[in-house]
Amino acid sequence: QVQLVESGGGLVQAGGSLRLSCGASGINFKLYTLHWGRQAPGKERELVATITSSGTTNYTDSVKGRFTISRDNVWSRVFLQMNSLKPEDTAVYYCSVVSHGRRFWGQGTQVTVSS
To answer: Cα 79 vs. chain centroid, distance in angstroms?
Structure first.
Protein backbone atom coordinates (compact mmCIF):
# COMPACT_ATOMS: atom_id res chain seq x y z
CA GLN A 1 0.00 0.00 0.00
CA VAL A 2 1.52 3.30 -1.12
CA GLN A 3 1.36 6.00 1.53
CA LEU A 4 2.52 9.59 1.26
CA VAL A 5 2.50 11.99 4.21
CA GLU A 6 3.28 15.68 3.79
CA SER A 7 4.29 18.19 6.43
CA GLY A 8 5.76 21.66 6.72
CA GLY A 9 3.00 23.90 5.48
CA GLY A 10 1.91 27.06 7.23
CA LEU A 11 1.28 30.79 6.99
CA VAL A 12 4.07 32.99 5.68
CA GLN A 13 4.39 36.55 4.44
CA ALA A 14 5.10 37.28 0.81
CA GLY A 15 8.82 36.98 0.15
CA GLY A 16 9.24 34.36 2.84
CA SER A 17 10.25 30.72 2.65
CA LEU A 18 8.89 27.32 3.64
CA ARG A 19 10.27 23.80 3.34
CA LEU A 20 7.81 21.00 2.72
CA SER A 21 8.60 17.38 3.45
CA CYS A 22 6.94 14.16 2.33
CA GLY A 23 7.56 10.68 3.66
CA ALA A 24 6.79 7.73 1.41
CA SER A 25 6.20 4.08 2.15
CA GLY A 26 5.00 1.06 0.19
CA ILE A 27 7.36 1.61 -2.73
CA ASN A 28 11.04 1.02 -3.48
CA PHE A 29 11.53 4.73 -3.09
CA LYS A 30 14.90 5.14 -4.80
CA LEU A 31 13.51 3.74 -8.08
CA TYR A 32 10.65 6.21 -8.47
CA THR A 33 10.10 9.66 -9.90
CA LEU A 34 8.50 11.88 -7.26
CA HIS A 35 6.36 14.96 -7.76
CA TRP A 36 5.02 17.93 -5.85
CA GLY A 37 1.70 19.33 -6.91
CA ARG A 38 -0.67 21.98 -5.60
CA GLN A 39 -4.30 22.94 -5.76
CA ALA A 40 -5.47 26.49 -5.17
CA PRO A 41 -9.09 27.28 -4.30
CA GLY A 42 -11.29 27.01 -7.37
CA LYS A 43 -8.45 25.72 -9.54
CA GLU A 44 -7.37 22.35 -10.83
CA ARG A 45 -4.51 20.48 -9.22
CA GLU A 46 -1.22 21.04 -11.02
CA LEU A 47 2.22 19.48 -10.81
CA VAL A 48 4.88 22.04 -9.95
CA ALA A 49 8.09 20.05 -9.45
CA THR A 50 9.46 16.64 -10.41
CA ILE A 51 12.58 14.71 -9.46
CA THR A 52 13.58 11.49 -11.17
CA SER A 53 15.33 8.52 -9.62
CA SER A 54 18.63 9.87 -10.94
CA GLY A 55 18.02 13.31 -9.48
CA THR A 56 17.00 15.18 -12.60
CA THR A 57 14.56 17.95 -11.72
CA ASN A 58 11.89 19.84 -13.62
CA TYR A 59 9.63 22.73 -12.65
CA THR A 60 6.58 24.46 -13.96
CA ASP A 61 7.39 27.96 -15.19
CA SER A 62 5.63 29.78 -12.37
CA VAL A 63 7.99 28.36 -9.71
CA LYS A 64 11.28 28.12 -11.62
CA GLY A 65 14.11 29.84 -9.78
CA ARG A 66 12.10 29.96 -6.54
CA PHE A 67 11.31 26.33 -5.67
CA THR A 68 13.77 23.46 -5.33
CA ILE A 69 12.80 19.80 -5.16
CA SER A 70 15.18 17.29 -3.57
CA ARG A 71 15.09 13.76 -2.23
CA ASP A 72 16.65 11.58 0.46
CA ASN A 73 16.67 7.96 -0.66
CA VAL A 74 17.95 6.75 2.71
CA TRP A 75 14.92 8.06 4.59
CA SER A 76 12.45 7.83 1.65
CA ARG A 77 11.63 11.52 1.77
CA VAL A 78 11.12 14.20 -0.83
CA PHE A 79 11.36 17.91 -0.08
CA LEU A 80 10.21 21.16 -1.63
CA GLN A 81 12.14 24.27 -0.65
CA MET A 82 10.01 27.29 -1.50
CA ASN A 83 11.61 30.73 -1.51
CA SER A 84 10.37 34.18 -2.52
CA LEU A 85 6.82 33.05 -1.92
CA LYS A 86 3.98 34.98 -3.51
CA PRO A 87 0.29 35.19 -2.57
CA GLU A 88 -0.51 33.23 -5.75
CA ASP A 89 1.46 30.29 -4.30
CA THR A 90 -1.31 29.83 -1.73
CA ALA A 91 -2.62 26.30 -2.14
CA VAL A 92 -2.73 22.84 -0.67
CA TYR A 93 0.52 21.13 -1.61
CA TYR A 94 0.70 17.40 -2.28
CA CYS A 95 3.44 14.94 -3.01
CA SER A 96 2.71 12.29 -5.59
CA VAL A 97 4.05 9.15 -7.18
CA VAL A 98 2.89 6.90 -10.00
CA SER A 99 3.06 3.21 -9.19
CA HIS A 100 1.65 0.35 -11.28
CA GLY A 101 -0.09 2.80 -13.55
CA ARG A 102 -1.88 4.64 -10.78
CA ARG A 103 -1.11 8.10 -9.39
CA PHE A 104 -1.05 8.32 -5.63
CA TRP A 105 -1.37 11.55 -3.64
CA GLY A 106 -0.77 12.37 -0.02
CA GLN A 107 -3.33 14.15 2.14
CA GLY A 108 -1.75 17.54 1.45
CA THR A 109 -0.41 20.41 3.53
CA GLN A 110 -1.79 23.95 3.41
CA VAL A 111 0.48 26.81 2.39
CA THR A 112 -0.89 30.32 2.81
CA VAL A 113 1.09 33.36 1.66
CA SER A 114 -0.14 36.72 2.91
CA SER A 115 0.48 39.93 1.03
So the answer is: 7
Going by the DSSP 8-state scheme, the letter that residue 43 receives in this structure is S
| Contact assessment for residue 92 and residue 7, using Cβ atoms and an 8 Å cutoff | no
pLDDT of residue 89: 98
Percent of the chain topping pLDDT 90: 100
Helix (H, G, I), strand (E, B) or coil at 10: strand
- Residue 20: predicted pLDDT: 98
The whole-angstrom separation of Cα 104 and Cα 111 is 20
Characterize 96-110 residue by residue with b for buried, 16 or more Cβ atoms within 10 angstroms of its Cβ, and e for exposed: bbeeeeeebbbebbe
Classify residue 58 as exposed, middle or buried by CB count within 10 Å of its CB (0-12, 13-18, 19+).
Answer: middle
